[in-house]
Amino acid sequence: MNIEEVKNYLKENLSEKRYNHSVGTMKSAKELAKIYGENEKDAEFAGLIHDIAKEMNKEEIDKYVLEHNIVIDEIEKKQPALLHAKLGASIAKEKYNANEEIQKAILYHTTGNEKMDRFAKIIYIADKIEENREYDGVEELREIAKTDLNKAIVIIIDFVLEKSIKNSRLIHPDTISLRNKILSNT
Ligand SMILES: [Fe+2]
Ligand SMILES: [Fe+2]
Q1: pTM confidence score
Q2: Near ion ligand 1, which residues have CB within 5 Å?
């Protein structure tokens, strides 16, 4: 896959804001991959396309799910926005022949998952700390990510949980499992 071609595709198919977020995630993923000795090209690619399915409308989603026999869990049924991770992973495979590590990183980038490897953790974090993100604590989080991926993930999950509680949103059990796993091992 050629990164410039992918960029052109995303530029045409995503809003400007989402496109900029995708490029920001690509850069951040590359930087972290370099620090942690992961494949930088794969990280760039995964970062760039992680939200490729985020702007599909309901009809497009339903059609894709049906055609590709995608299994939807109870929480995804109630919060379809979560689905863009599953669809994105599938599109990465189908359209760009992405390897399994990349597919998994995309699959887990929204809820997190206790099965995440280091590469997936990098993509998860890059998505939340890329240069366009602005929220209290993001600067500090960018520094933490450079030295401790697990610590950065727990901080991100805690943000997510606080927000979900405040907004009475469902919490995906995979998010809790990941947090528990990291906290039990550190
Ligand atoms: Fe996403
Ligand atoms: Fe994202």
Answers
A1: 0.96
A2: 51
